[in-house]
Amino acid sequence: MTVQAQPDTSGHVLVDVRNHVGHLTLNRPAGLNALTLDMVRSLRSHLDAWADDANVQAVVLRGEGPKGFCAGGDIRSLHDSFKAGDTLHETFFVEEYDLDLLIHRYRKPVLVLMDGFTLGGGMGLAQGADLRVVTERSRLGMPEVGIGYFPDVGGSYFLSRIPGELGTYLGVSGAHIQAADALYCGLADWYLASEQLAALDQGLDQLHFGEYPLKDLQGLLAKLGTQVLDDAPLARLRPVIDHYFALPDMPSIVEQLRAVAIGDSHAWALATADQLETRSPLAMAVTLEMLRRGRHLSLEDCFAMELHLDRQWFQHGDIVEGVRALIVDKDKQPRWNPPTLAGLSRKRVEQFFEGL
């Protein structure tokens, strides 16, 4: 049975098949290629159609324009849906997570170009790919706690599996990282200078696919790029991050960052404590709990946990206020509930996980 891909009438996903490679390009460059439900559905329908299409040996996923692969989900539309009493914010996460899971489990190799901003939902698309490519323009991150949300799209799985406590740090701080750190953390596989992307496309158009398409793609990347970059900032900070972010709860983490100097990292620790104190206390505490649970869960169970949190979050979390303050009114003065970690009870955090 051949699955017919549904056309994307918005033009927000560009589709091309050349030399047995299916190319999918996110095409909302003015919005840093942020994902809408239509885009999720279009990507899904093409991947479903290509799964059984013998003419397609591999898939390449990228974003239009030099600024970003994908800056996440179109969070403004989800906020507006909730405020209007609609259900887009419920439907979107179910279908987005299904798409992310499909990429993780896809039978054909998927190569993703994380050129420019790759944040939130962009990381969800990218982290399931077999070949994750970064450039000198790449900025990767799960910045959700800054808008009163938690790192979803499989973040409870892929962040919790980064060595030591680096994933905990990235999740509860929302920090962005660049290419060297992405390779060091295992969030990317290859580094290519952006000027090599044209050569990569040329190589893909001329590639002779044998029995193992993944090996053919790796061979092409090996001619153009590298798998290791020196001087990853997180490599130097690793012992310090492993110490602070293994502490039992968020108040202890912030308190120790301020009080305990380890080596020459005190300025970094103080800056990190300052950063954490701008984030939603509830979102950070739930993120910490979610990542610690995620370490022991399968990929499918991680997505199920995130969906369980989603179903409560618009009503009981901080996201509506976060989007108001940072995206709608842009006053950058979110009134978090509670406003500080000191005011947050353990019970309130645990309630989100009840019934899992």
Topology:
Elements: E1 13-18, E2 21-26, H1 37-51, E3 58-63, E4 68-70, H2 75-83, H3 88-104, E5 110-114, E6 117-119, H4 121-126, E7 131-134, E8 139-141, H5 155-158, H6 166-173, E9 176-177, H7 179-185, E10 190-191, H8 197-206, H9 213-224, H10 233-244, H11 250-259, H12 266-276, H13 281-294, H14 299-316, H15 319-328, H16 346-351
Parallel strand pairs: 2-3, 3-5, 4-6, 5-7, 6-8, 7-10
Antiparallel strand pairs: 1-2, 8-9
Helix pairs in contact: 1-3, 2-3, 2-15, 3-14, 6-13, 8-9, 11-12
Strand % is: 5-15%
Shape descriptor: globular
Strand order of the largest sheet: 1-2-3-5-7-10
Mean pLDDT: 96
Examine the secondary-structure arrangement and name the CATH architecture of the domain at 13-141 and 175-224.
Answer: Alpha-Beta Complex
CATH superfamily of the domain at 13-141 and 175-224: 2-enoyl-CoA Hydratase, Chain A, domain 1
Relative helix content: 40-55%
For the sheet with most strands, the description reads: 6 strands, mixed
SSE arrangement, N to C: EEHEEHHEEHEEHHEHEHHHHHHHHH
Distance between the termini: 37 Å
User: How many beta-strand elements?
Assistant: 10
Give the CATH topology of the domain at 13-141 and 175-224.
2-enoyl-CoA Hydratase, Chain A, domain 1
**Secondary structure tally, helices:** 16
Radius of gyration using CA atoms only? 20 Å
- Indicate the low-confidence ranges by residue numbers: none
Which class do the helix and strand fractions yield? Answer: alpha/beta
At the first level of CATH, the class of the domain at 13-141 and 175-224 is Alpha Beta
